[in-house]
Automatic annotation (TrEMBL):
GO cellular component, one term: cytosol
Protein's name according to its UniProt entry: Dihydroxyacetone kinase subunit L
Sample GO molecular function, one term: glycerone kinase activity
Residues annotated as domain DhaL: 16-217
GO biological process entries: glycerol catabolic process
Keyword Kinase assigned: yes
Keyword flag Transferase: yes
This protein's UniProt keywords: Kinase, Transferase
């Protein structure tokens, strides 16, 4: 379905929203940097919050140079290239690939309706799967992304607005992130811990929730 297909209620998002979303992401990641580091310290290197914060602060600096009237795809492509070049560890390539695939999915669209927003989220999730080879249940960010995509698809089929769609996606991501706590990790550094990873939330799933919540909140204000 084309990114420019109109949703039943006509609600849509544009490049101004995309830029506002990314700026909001930078703010919430900075606010939760210590929390994300703490989560990562339990099952990883302890620097997930630091790395994500550095990446999104770099993105904000580059957003200031974006031409007026940039499309959502152009904003997302800028995010992708910046995260890939500035974020260390696995987070840079994974989130960078997510934003890059999302940018491709909505390339050329000035506005995003429900179908395009689903395409954006689905492409982001699939990009992470392609890069990291993780599945639901592996105790990774996919445990947040996949329920978010599923909720978005259900919302689109129900004819709900893109704002509601993003809210449902964010809620599902939060539930998915919480559900990583009792899991044994099968990917990444946490996989070396075996059952010692049980009881700890995956930091990538948590940061995914923060990003999607920012998308919903900025959409509600658009």
């Amino acid at each position: 379905m084309s990114p420019n297909v109109t949703s039943p209620n006509g609600t849509s998002l544009n490049g101004t929203w995309a830029e506002a979303w990314i700026r909001e992401c930078a703010g919430v990641i900075a606010e939760h940097r210590a929390e994300l580091n703490t989560l990562d310290r339990a099952i990883g290197d302890g620097d997930h919050g630091e790395n994500m914060d550095r990446g999104f602060q770099a993105v904000v600096l580059k957003l200031d140079a974006l031409p007026s009237g940039s499309t959502p795809g152009e904003v997302l492509k800028l995010v992708a290239t910046t995260l890939i070049s500035t974020v260390g560890g696995a987070s840079g390539p994974l989130f960078g690939t997510a934003f890059l695939k999302a940018a491709i999915a909505v390339s050329g669209a000035d506005t995003l309706h429900a179908a395009a927003t689903v395409a954006l989220l689905t492409a982001a999730r699939d990009g992470i799967v392609l890069r990291g080879k993780a599945q639901v249940g592996d105790k990774t960010m996919i445990d947040a992304w996949t329920p978010a995509v599923d909720a978005a698809i259900d919302s689109q089929h129900a004819g709900e607005s893109v704002v509601t769609l993003l809210e449902r996606a964010a809620d599902a991501a939060a539930t998915g992130a919480l559900a990583t706590e009792p899991l044994v990790a099968h990917k990444g550094r946490a996989s070396y811990l075996g059952e010692r990873a049980i009881g700890h939330r995956d930091p990538g799933a948590e940061s995914t929730t923060l990003l999607l919540r920012a998308a919903a909140e900025t959409a509600a204000r658009a």
